[in-house]
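hiii so um. not sure if this is the right channel but i have a protein structure encoded as tokens and i wanna go backwards to a sequence. like what aa goes where. can anyone help
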């Protein structure tokens, strides 16, 4: 089976490629920059705005897994271009090539589109997928962690200082990137269990993790017991403005992110979990966080 993959050079995409190749798939993968040759992978130079590259990407593919998108942008137009227009371009290429199976990696933030420009763009992209006429499945991951992740890395780094700043209230679900990659392959065959369905996968922990529990778990993974500093929504917004002032385009905590991080409920919906006989998480989160911390150290990231 041949897969066409967008976002194959990213955090989730690299994990997916590892699992897909191990299971005997061949892959065509979109890449904005030159990549090292890899057996079983055909790298297609281009991005989500390059319609010619997308046509080449999906040619002769049995299924399309759309992972690529924008998680951090300066303004609404940045999210619109990367997540909405980009998704539309991939859908059109798939339809023109006669592809039927389409797996779209969205975000739990799409559940609350009024909170952030990011969530709104992911929700609009979902509507395009659902209206595409393709054999689609949506996957809305909760917070993703694991080796190669650069988003949660910030929390691992700061925990070494003896404290971790987190939103004061709220809970979130987590999923290890390896478990997410397995799910994306598990839904590929399609069928009535997964077709025209939206799934919210997590680590299986009932009611997710409070921000306090998550911060302490990260501290434990790093070998410490950091103090957890709870930040109110207004303080989160001030911190975002400060981060933008200091790191400018490299800022991790933007005002848009501060808005959805402060939302109290990012726990997956019980009825939206994938069918138990199709997929179950394998990686226990505390052990997964500990292994991730070890990987960060080995790579010199912390």
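sure thing!! here u go:
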């Amino acid at each position: 089976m041949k897969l066409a993959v967008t976002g194959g050079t990213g955090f989730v995409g690299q994990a997916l490629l590892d699992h897909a190749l191990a299971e005997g798939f061949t892959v065509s993968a979109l890449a904005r920059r030159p990549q090292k040759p890899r057996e079983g992978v055909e790298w297609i130079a281009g991005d989500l705005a390059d319609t010619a590259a997308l046509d080449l990407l999906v040619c002769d593919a049995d299924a399309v897994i759309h992972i690529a998108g924008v998680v951090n942008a300066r303004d609404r137009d940045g999210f619109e271009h990367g997540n909405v227009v980009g998704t539309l371009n991939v859908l059109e290429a798939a339809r023109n090539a006669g592809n039927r199976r389409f797996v779209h990696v969205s975000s739990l933030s799409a559940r609350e589109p009024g909170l952030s420009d990011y969530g709104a763009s992911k929700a609009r992209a979902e509507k395009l997928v659902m209206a595409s006429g393709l054999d689609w499945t949506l996957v809305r991951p909760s917070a993703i962690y694991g080796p190669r992740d650069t988003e949660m890395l910030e929390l691992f780094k700061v925990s070494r200082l003896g404290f971790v700043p987190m939103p004061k209230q709220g809970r979130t679900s987590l999923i290890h990137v390896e478990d997410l990659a397995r799910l994306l392959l598990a839904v590929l065959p399609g069928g009535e269990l997964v077709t025209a369905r939206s799934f919210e996968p997590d680590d299986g922990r009932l009611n997710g993790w409070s921000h306090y529990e998550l911060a302490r778990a990260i501290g434990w993974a790093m070998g410490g017991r950091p103090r957890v500093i709870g930040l109110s929504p207004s303080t989160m917004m001030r911190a975002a403005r400060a981060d933008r002032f200091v790191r400018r385009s490299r800022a991790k905590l933007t005002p848009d992110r501060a808005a959805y991080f402060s939302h109290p409920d990012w726990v997956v919906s019980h009825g939206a979990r994938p069918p138990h006989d199709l997929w179950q998480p394998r990686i226990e989160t505390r052990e997964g966080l500990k292994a991730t911390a070890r990987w960060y150290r080995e790579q010199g990231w912390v």
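oh and The two ends are 39 Å apart (CA to CA).
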